[in-house]
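Exercise 7b. Backbone tokens:
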């Protein structure tokens, strides 16, 4: 198991708070891409790349600055050691296909699998 996956696994099924550095509708700082979902990080949880652990906050159609929810899945990138938590509002569920559709704008460039409990 990769170090980043090992770090991400304990968050499955847990309540976490995501700080958005790329809210829904914002442009990527270096690429021609607009974020179609709220995207951020878990503050203070360092991933192997030295940055905070990344997370998508799905199921909300408005830009957010910070939100708490349940980590329902991990997007495990097979060609990049940079896991992405999938966090949704309490009580919400999403299928793997719904997660793939919601994150396709960015994840289309990577080979990945969705991991759940």
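Sequence design result:
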């Amino acid at each position: 198991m990769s170090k980043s996956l090992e770090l991400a696994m304990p968050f499955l099924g847990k309540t976490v708070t995501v700080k958005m550095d790329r809210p829904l509708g914002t442009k990527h700082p270096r690429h021609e891409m607009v974020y179609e979902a709220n995207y951020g990080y878990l503050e203070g949880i360092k991933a192997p790349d030295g940055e905070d652990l990344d997370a998508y906050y799905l199921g909300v159609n408005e830009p957010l600055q910070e939100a708490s929810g349940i980590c329902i899945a991990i997007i495990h990138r097979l060609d990049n050691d940079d896991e992405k938590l999938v966090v949704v509002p309490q009580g919400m569920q999403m299928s793997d296909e719904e997660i793939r559709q919601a994150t396709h704008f960015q994840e289309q460039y990577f080979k990945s699998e969705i991991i759940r409990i």
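Instructor comment: The chain has a mean pLDDT of 94. The chain has one domain: 3-115.
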